[in-house]
Predict the structure.
Amino acid sequence: MASRILDLNRLSPGLHTITLSAHDSDGREGRASITVRVATQLELKSETGLEGSVDNARRVDTKSGIGVGNGPKLGQPPREQVVRGFVSFDLTTLPKDVEIIEARVELFQKDITGDPYFKGLGGVVVDAVDYGPSLDADDFDAPALLEGIGTLSDNGLLEFKGLDVTEAVKTALANERSRVQFRLRFGNETDGDGNIDAVVFEAATSAATASMAPKLILIVAPIR
Ligand SMILES: [Ca+2]
Ligand SMILES: [Ca+2]
């Protein structure tokens, strides 16, 4: 008996029912149906005006990309400036009848100053936070919804860095949040030397081309 392979490559995203029937030489018939879900990939760009950096002196910068790291000492007693990065994605444009299979955030590391990856700071780790409709001084310490989701970058290569954020996106949707928002920080935020050790990721506002802007890549499938 010859085996047959069904070619499903041309199925559009959505739910499909496939029914197969077979007949033998005595005229008997068998039937079987299966339901196939075809997933699709969506890409969301970050929200301009809601991405940037906040430092431990409460300064907000939404113009110079997404900075993470440390810098000159200030205050009394003096301590290094510590900078955290922020990026936000609007979830309201997602279709309502889909389930998130996988979500991945990608940011382009475009600049490095000092030696952030060689001074014991660890990598750039990501928290899921809710910092609302504007980036403010207090967001530096916004409570983490999910703390330390993973490491976005552990090296100085200037390239797209990605991290699986499926849980954060699912949680945001389950709680009917209109956005999923992330805070970037080094695992150890200061080395105490008063020198700049920092990285900058491209923001939508700073990116030379739209393709370099932060993106949230989603694999979605229709709800069963
Ligand atoms: Ca805020
Ligand atoms: Ca330093």
About this structure: The chain has one domain: 42-222. The CA atoms of residues 72 and 194 lie 4 Å apart.
